């Protein structure tokens, strides 16, 4: 049983927490912002509450790793980013000092995982990208291992099916970018590796069970769907009839205008570019011109006189011939 007094116990606890420089509450506890150097060589700078790391802070390990994020009662809790000594990094949700919830992990070799976490493991739905090959696993995870429905996507094809313990199992299919699919099944076999295996393929570098193809679909050629625009001559009969009637009306109107124009030109050439006087008024003034009526009357009188003279001369000539015959 320890004989340490309460004051000595507080000093021992303080020594355990390391040296501290920062704010304190009325009870002397670390409270507010401060910086501490722990006995193990780690350092912490951030918020405290009742001598515990609580709130936003940065914890640096003597190994070179460090964490920037939220704390709750001395534990990483909330959103934070952990930088590991090997160069890898996790950014996401933390619960009780563990990766929990959604987070993104960048590994030292360049691979990445973005998805759900549970108790520090990849768990739930997530996407893992292999940097070297560019391949991508999209699907389920259980305790850090690929499991459940998923797609393993490669450069020019993909596999879709179920995974168990990191390997594809059961029925699935390969989908090729050229337009065909290969359906089949992964079978766990105990045959010797030297024995000939029919239609075997390796879906990924992580798993190589025996693949047995059962069906290959035909190529599906893509053709652009271009709709032919109807020509002006084509269309519904009603529309064509209306167009023909409209065309006839236009032609008839043009003919009438042409006749009117010819009449107007013959009547008065000076009125060709005039719009202020209708042509009917000009025609009326010519029809009822008194000078023209007098000239036409004189011309008719002269014609009648000439016709009477010619008739008289013809009659006299016949009478002369008759008298000559009688004298003979």
TrEMBL record:
Task: Please report a single Pfam family linked to this protein.
Answer: MORN
Q: Where is this region: Disordered?
A: 1-45, 188-210, 226-328
Keywords of this entry: Cell projection, Cilium, Cytoplasm, Cytoskeleton, Flagellum, Meiosis, Repeat
Single GO cellular component annotation?
nucleus
Please list the residue ranges that the record marks as compositionally biased, kind Basic and acidic residues.
Answer: 21-36, 249-260, 270-284
SUPFAM superfamilies according to UniProt: Histone H3 K4-specific methyltransferase SET7/9 N-terminal domain
Where do Low complexity bias regions lie?
227-248
Repeat as a keyword of this entry, yes or no, is yes
Biological process (GO) annotations? axoneme assembly; meiotic cell cycle; spermatid development
Protein localization? Cytoplasm, Cytoskeleton, Flagellum axoneme
Q: Compositional bias (Acidic residues) spans?
A: 1-14, 188-203, 319-328
As recorded in UniProt, coiled-coil segments are none
- Give the protein's function: Functions as part of axonemal radial spoke complexes that play an important part in the motility of sperm and cilia.
Could you tell me what this protein is called?
A: Radial spoke head 1 homolog
In its UniProt entry, the species of origin is given as Bambusicola thoracicus (Chinese bamboo-partridge)
């Amino acid at each position: 049983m320890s004989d340490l007094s309460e004051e000595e116990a507080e000093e021992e606890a303080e020594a355990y927490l390391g040296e501290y420089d920062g704010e304190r509450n009325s009870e002397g506890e670390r409270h507010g912002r401060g910086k501490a150097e722990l006995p193990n060589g780690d350092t912490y700078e951030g918020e405290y509450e009742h001598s515990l790391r609580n709130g936003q802070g940065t914890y640096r390990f003597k190994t070179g790793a460090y964490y920037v994020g939220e704390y709750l009662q001395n534990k990483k809790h909330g959103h934070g980013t952990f930088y590991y000594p090997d160069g890898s990094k996790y950014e996401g949700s933390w619960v009780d000092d563990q990766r929990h919830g959604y987070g993104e992990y960048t590994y030292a070799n360049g691979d990445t995982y973005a998805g759900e976490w549970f108790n520090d493991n990849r768990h739930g739905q997530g996407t893992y990208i292999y940097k070297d090959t560019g391949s991508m696993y999209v699907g389920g995870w259980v305790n850090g291992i690929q499991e459940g429905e998923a797609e393993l996507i490669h450069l020019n094809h993909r596999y879709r099916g179920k995974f168990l313990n990191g390997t594809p199992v059961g029925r699935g299919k390969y989908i090729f970018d050229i337009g065909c699919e290969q359906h089949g099944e992964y079978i766990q076999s105990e045959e010797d590796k030297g024995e000939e295996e029919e239609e075997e393929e390796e879906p990924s570098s992580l798993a190589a069970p025996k693949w047995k193809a059962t069906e290959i679909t035909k190529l599906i050629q893509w053709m652009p769907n271009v709709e032919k625009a109807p020509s002006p001559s084509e269309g519904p009969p009603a529309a064509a009839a209306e167009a023909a009637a409209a065309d006839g009306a236009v032609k008839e109107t043009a003919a009438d205008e042409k006749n009117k124009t010819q009449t107007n030109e013959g009547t008065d050439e000076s009125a060709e570019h005039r719009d202020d006087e209708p042509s009917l008024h000009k025609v009326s003034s010519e029809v009822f011109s008194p000078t023209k009526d007098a000239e036409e009357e004189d011309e008719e009188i002269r014609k009648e006189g000439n016709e009477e003279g010619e008739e008289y001369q013809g009659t006299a000539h016949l009478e002369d011939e008759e008298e000559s015959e009688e004298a003979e």
